[in-house]
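Thought: the user asked what isocitrate dehydrogenase (NAD(+)) looks like in 3D. I have the sequence; next I should run the structure tool and report back without guessing.
Action: structure_tool
Action Input:
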Amino acid sequence: MKYPRTGRIIFFDEGVDGLIVAFLPEVGLKGPLETPIGKGHRSLNLAVRKEFNLYANVRPCRSLEGHKTLYDNVDVVTIRENTEGEYSGIEHEIVPGVVQSIKLITEDASRRVAKYAFEYARQNSRKYVTAVHKANIMRMSDGLFLNICREQAQKYPDIKFKVSI
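Observation:
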């Protein structure tokens, strides 16, 4: 499928009526956003992420002046790999009542999102990047991710690198 940025509407046929993605200059709109739990079609969000290779989920969180919250002066940006890990959507039922979910991690995707995080930090005057992981338990998958993050950190000496479990 080709999807030039021409403003035309593209309909996805994922077996569910109503998923529309509209391309306007630098804007994408989609819907519906709900996924049935435990049955029915796969996540529409996952389908859109995979179709358009939306690998970096960027979530800024800032305190708003005049709004009392538990913490003051919050200014954090979370960047999550959006196509792999627990979000790869690879799972199956081995036997009735036993389900296996696969956490897929690759060097390429880890490198791409780590580079994105460091570039984002540099372009937005951020002082550091923190890699959040569970390499203490998931030694191979999260260990690979963490090693790639450390490798990328060497290329950005102006940005402090931290790790957090």
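Thought: the tool returned a structure. Summarizing for the user.
Final Answer: Structure for isocitrate dehydrogenase (NAD(+)) predicted. The CA atoms of residues 10 and 153 lie 39 Å apart. The first strand starts at residue 9 and ends at 11.
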